[in-house]
């Protein structure tokens, strides 16, 4: 009986440590470099040519086991609210960088319709096409938080984005639509804090296990007294 009780206790402790470890790692790796690829396509055609700029609006930080953002030095003087509606935020950022000289990275769009930004650090970014192909309007500017978390709660540090491109023969439609984002898993896969549901039944099982141990110990004590 004592062996059974000891086994159950060790099992519950082991599961508790495992769950705690998973939650401790359920945050982005702030030391890992990120690659962002912006693709310019219309229907099945690659739209090469032009130029694109990438602005880092805020750095990602971890406080109290949660992620947060701190505006970079270039944007500390702004009143940007990163929680605002996408369209409003994009307009606010566009107005601010028009009036202020802000650090950014510039990339040419190659003939395959790609612009690649490498060695980026986790944060909140703004993407702006400043020069487009002759027959197309500049793509709709957008914001993106890196690294990107997919539908499975896994962070990806190799991110591919499809920019929204429109030919000059058509009018640009809904500018609030976000770009299509795909991710390529590389390195460790980290689930997002608060997005995991599987530890709930495990923690429940641990609680039931501890209750069972208590009952077993209580009955054993009674038998000894008898």
Written account of the structure:
By secondary structure, the protein is of the alpha+beta class. The protein contains 3 helices and 12 strands; from the N terminus they run αββββαββββββββα. It has helices at residues 2-24, 86-99, 199-225; strands spanning 34-42, 45-46, 51-63, 66-71, 105-108, 114-120, 123-131, 142-146, 148-149, 155-156, 158-163, 180-183. The strands form 3 sheets. Strands 1, 2, 6, 11 and 12 form a 5-stranded mixed β-sheet that branches. Strands 3, 4, 5, 7 and 8 form a 5-stranded antiparallel β-sheet that branches. A hairpin with a 5-residue loop joins β9 and β10 (155-156). α1 (2-24) runs antiparallel to α3 (199-225). The protein is globular, with a radius of gyration of 25 Å. It starts with a helix and ends with a helix. Mean pLDDT is 79; it is low at 13-25 and 187-198.
Specify the helix fraction band. 25-40%
In whole angstroms, how far apart are the ends?
Answer: 17 Å
Mean pLDDT: 79
| Helix and strand composition category | alpha+beta
Shape: globular
Number of helices: 3
Strand content: 25-35%
Low-confidence stretches: 13-25, 187-198
């Amino acid at each position: 009986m004592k062996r059974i009780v000891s086994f159950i206790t060790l099992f519950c402790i082991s599961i508790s440590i495992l769950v705690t470890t998973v939650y401790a790692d359920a945050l982005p790796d702030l030391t890992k470099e990120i690659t962002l690829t912006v693709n310019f396509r219309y229907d099945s055609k690659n739209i090469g040519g032009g130029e694109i700029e990438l602005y880092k609006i805020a750095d990602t930080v971890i406080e109290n086991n949660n992620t947060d953002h701190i505006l970079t030095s270039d944007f500390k003087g702004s009143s940007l609210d990163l929680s605002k509606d996408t369209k409003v935020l994009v307009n606010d950022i566009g107005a601010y960088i028009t009036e202020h000289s802000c650090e950014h990275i510039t990339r040419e769009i190659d003939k395959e319709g790609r612009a690649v930004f490498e060695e980026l650090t986790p944060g909140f970014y703004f993407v702006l096409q400043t020069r487009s192909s002759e027959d197309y309007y500049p793509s709709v500017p957008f914001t993106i938080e890196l690294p990107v978390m997919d539908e499975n709660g896994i962070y990806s540090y190799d991110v591919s984005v499809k920019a929204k491109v429109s030919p000059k023969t058509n009018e640009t439609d809904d500018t609030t639509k976000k770009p299509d984002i795909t991710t390529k898993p590389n390195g460790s896969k980290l689930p997002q804090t608060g997005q995991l549901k599987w530890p709930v039944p495990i923690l429940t099982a641990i609680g039931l296990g501890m209750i069972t141990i208590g009952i077993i110990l209580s009955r054993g004590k009674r038998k000894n007294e008898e």
